[in-house]
Structure to design on (280 residues):
């Protein structure tokens, strides 16, 4: 049985993460773990403001801590009720140490992490992708599904392919982990930045053979342009809610196309779930 992690901030429960994770766990008959990162130094309020502005700071802090605990407990209960209603196998982890480190360690023992692109695990808003998401994607130990703020049913799969090992690795991992989604329309999409190049897939014969066995009904599209402009533009022109598969979100990655910034661009400029994986 596959093990999927759904990651939550108990102070601001992501309904999008909850819906995507439950639907995918049902589809793949996976065990779903609700990971609640209850970092002990993370509060919904400012400790500094309470200490400097309140006369009886100790009592105020106690009340605020009690309120925080209630919020987190209610989020866990909401997850539990949703999983029971869906009839899926699930468990709950409440990790109280440093959130990013805890999640990286959790990912070592999981097949897939599902997380909202807006998660920061701080009280402050950040432009997406925030520091938490960037740091997680750079060093996570399994593929990650980064989901948008609102849930939409997935109705198409877009495989981004540049001929490099990282993009192909991501496609393989998607095929292995979310194989039931292969019944949806699938498109392999490549951008060639060399305007003199032919409109053939990189590794044309071998890649087409690979596609034939894994995605027999897939459509293949090869275009010329600048990838960082072409890919989001291509997605914006579609009505479908695509799941985009891409690789190489890793510091120091030498991929010609799917460098670190591609996932950032897609998170900022599109409203679609991203399946991100990189080979070590």
């Amino acid at each position: 049985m596959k093990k999927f992690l759904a990651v939550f901030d108990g102070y601001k429960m992501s309904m999008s993460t909850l819906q995507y994770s439950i639907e995918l766990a049902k589809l793949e008959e996976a065990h779903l773990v609700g990971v609640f990162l209850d970092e002990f130094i993370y509060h919904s309020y400012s400790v500094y403001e309470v200490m400097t502005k309140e006369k009886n700071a100790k009592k105020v802090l106690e009340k605020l801590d009690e309120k925080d605990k209630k919020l987190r407990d209610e989020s866990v209960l909401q997850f539990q009720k949703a999983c029971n209603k869906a009839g899926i196998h699930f468990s709950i982890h409440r990790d109280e140490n440093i959130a990013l480190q805890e999640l990286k360690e959790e990912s070592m023992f999981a097949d897939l992490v599902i997380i909202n692109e807006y998660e920061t695990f701080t009280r402050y808003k950040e432009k997406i992708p925030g520091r938490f998401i960037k740091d997680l994607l750079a060093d996570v130990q399994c593929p990650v599904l980064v989901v948008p703020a609102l849930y939409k049913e997935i109705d198409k799969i877009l495989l981004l392919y540049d001929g490099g090992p990282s993009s192909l690795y991501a496609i393989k991992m998607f095929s292995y982990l979310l194989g039931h989604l292969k019944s949806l329309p699938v498109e392999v999409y490549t951008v060639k930045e060399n305007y003199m190049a032919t409109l053939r897939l990189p590794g044309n014969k071998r890649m087409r053979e690979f596609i034939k066995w894994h995605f027999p009904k897939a459509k293949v599209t090869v275009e010329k342009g600048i990838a960082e402009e072409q890919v989001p533009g291509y997605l914006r022109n579609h009505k479908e809610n695509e799941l985009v598969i891409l690789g190489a979100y890793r510091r120091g990655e030498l991929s010609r196309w799917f460098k670190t910034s591609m996932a950032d661009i897609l998170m900022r400029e599109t409203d679609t779930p991203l399946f991100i994986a990189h080979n070590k």
In short: The first helix runs from residue 15 to 28. The radius of gyration is 20 Å. Confidence is low (pLDDT under 50) at residues 250-259. The beta strands are 3-8, 31-37, 90-95, 112-116, 144-147, 156-160, 186-192, 219-224, 242-247, 274-277.
